Automatic annotation (TrEMBL):
InterPro entries assigned to the protein according to its UniProt record, in alphabetical order: Acyl_CoA_acyltransferase, GNAT_dom, N-acetyltransferase
Alphabetical list of PANTHER family matching this protein: GNAT FAMILY, PUTATIVE (AFU_ORTHOLOGUE AFUA_3G00765)-RELATED-RELATED, N-ACETYLTRANSFERASE DOMAIN-CONTAINING PROTEIN
Pfam families xrefs: Acetyltransf_3
Presence of the UniProt keyword Transferase in the record: yes
Domain N-acetyltransferase: 18-178
Keyword Glycosyltransferase: no
MF terms (GO), sorted A to Z: acyltransferase activity, transferring groups other than amino-acyl groups
Keywords, in A-Z order: Transferase
Protein name in the entry: N-acetyltransferase
Amino acid sequence: MNLPPQLPCELAIITERLVLRPPRLGDFDEFYEAARSMPPIVRGSPPIDRGTAWAKFTRNCGLWALLGYGIFIVTDRRDGSYLGDTGLARFGRSIEAMNEAAEAAWVMLEKARRRGIAHEAAQAAHSWFFERFGPQRTICMIDPENAPSLSLAARLGYRPFGQGTHEGGDVILLERLT
């Protein structure tokens, strides 16, 4: 049986302005409120309800136990406030190409946008992932109308390799070859 590498009890990545850490049960209410306040990831997706948020939150928690990596909660280093989340995971998508490698993801609250926080957080998560698991191809998918996310993906080294449909909306599939 292949077990994931053991994680330190209190894994945290500290950057100039941020703390990234795996989710904890006490994070759910902020996660849910943030999810309700953000626009859908893909145009046309329904607003998130509490049950769907709980399913996504527990999925994010479980990925750490199963894989040894996953989605980090991103907080402000100064005051600990929730800013969003980022990391790499394997979500088991219905788009087969999205299951070929670890998938990068990032979602930030409005107060964290246009300040370089998403880049700082995603870059830190990628660096941690590659240090722990070695250089490898990673992938992500983005709504073609989401210019800020496409820009961030390009800054992180992602390039388009295909297209797909997710939750009823078109997405661009991107890859980073490391």
